[in-house]
Design goal:
alpha/beta, Carbamate kinase, two-stranded antiparallel ribbon, about 240 residues
Length: about 240
Amino acid sequence: MKSNPQPRFRRILLKLSGEALGNEAGMGIAPEVVQDMARQISEVRQLGIEVVIVIGGGNIFRGVQGSERGIDRVTGDYMGMLATMINALALQDALEKQKVATRVQSAITMSQVAEPFIRRRAVRHLEKGRVVIFGGGTGNPYFSTDTAAALRANEVGAEVILKATKVDGIYDSDPKKNPEAKRYSEISYIEALQRQLKVMDAPAFSLCMENKMPIIVFNVFKPSNLKRVVMGEKVGTIVKA
């Protein structure tokens, strides 16, 4: 008898940009997009995989862009953290409509809407089969949600960071501008740095490299792609030592 294939990972961190929940321009919150994202996460959760999510806020507000328009950088970054919380609550609502037990933990205190980030509590939620969404970035200005993803993945013992994008991996140049762009199926941390491929920002990438945390960059907008990644299919680009 042929045995059913087993998932490649037991515990994953899914990194979603805020734009991934937005409309075609990546702005606002598009309910149908959030619902589709929740369906994909539910599909993976049904395989018994423990899922944590770090979500950005760029569809609502981005601190760096705010500072370019005259808003104090620190204030702008805190505004961006609040934007990630709006997205986290939207995704929690969509997941719970899929009957997926979900907890939101925030790096900045807002006890009426989310738990504070407590590592042990987050791990316990995972052990009980709940999806945990981390909002509020790292809780500190000047750090991106990429850095929050690298930090939380290491803290909760995730085996991989799955960076969800609109492109199907990492290319040697922009595939939208260069039709001859070559996609990597696998690349080392050092090579990605040398080629300046901007997988994540520097602090996040450095944290992953130091702790040998693999990163898989893939297109989350292709149906069931998230499930294919966790089942070990060759989807997207893997960055590892």
